[in-house]
Amino acid sequence: MKLALLICLAPLAPLAQAQIDIGFYRQERNGLSLYTTAPLNTIHTVMFCTDPSDGQSACHTLKPYDFTQAAEVDFVMAEQRVRHYRISKRILPHAKTEQGIAIINAQQVTQTANAFSVLAQRRRYKITTCTGSEGINLDLYDGPHKLRNLYFYLGYDITPTCDSASPSDKRPL
């Protein structure tokens, strides 16, 4: 009986790893960098979406095998060490901004003025963005529950648009 149970659960293990997650990307001259706290594996897809104010309605989808893993970095998310992946091509050549969000393991993304509605694992999630004093806040919600907050440090002052300053918006001196 126990052996049969283990055999039945073994095929479900990869599905359990395909959770929704978020990150940031930055386009550079020689390609694109993806920064996330999530490890990428072969079952994930990654959607790159420009800031909704950029006027683009579609996101661009890539698979993890398009990327190579680079060294972890600590300079983009409020000094938190994060995973860094590289791709050697520009994927959104007409975008006005050089950075945007990455949505990991989404089946469908719809953009609105200040949020993204995401379908993943047969559930609806919401991703919101706003700016702090020196960076971009990215929040992932499952209904009213905040699942994750990421902060992308830009390195220069900007006008805050967040309702209240997030703790991650306070960069240590």
From TrEMBL:
Residues 1-18 form the signal peptide. This is Signal peptide protein. It comes from Herbaspirillum seropedicae (strain SmR1). Keywords: Signal.
